[in-house]
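Response to reviewer comment R2.3. The reviewers asked that we include at least one raw input/output pair. We reproduce the pair for DUF1540 domain-containing protein here without editing.
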Amino acid sequence: MSIRIGNSCVNCENLTENEVCKVHAVKVSDNYTCDSFEMKAALKNDPNCGTCARYESTNCVNPQKAAPGMLCSHWAPQNAQA
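Raw output as returned:
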């Protein structure tokens, strides 16, 4: 069995604004996946302090230097789900 986080409905072109699959005509969530998956043309990939869950928190590894737009190897996405 394959684990396909990137193939969830939230990343699929077939998902409508009201969370209905255009292919299967059912309401879905970002936990769903299927073989009719079509990746959206672009995903938001903006790893910097402004999009980091650790920004301006006590577990930021660079609190004196952190600023929007700065990159570091400890970046953690704000909306990560598994």
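The radius of gyration is 16 Å. Residues 1-40 form one domain. Further pairs are available on request from the corresponding author.
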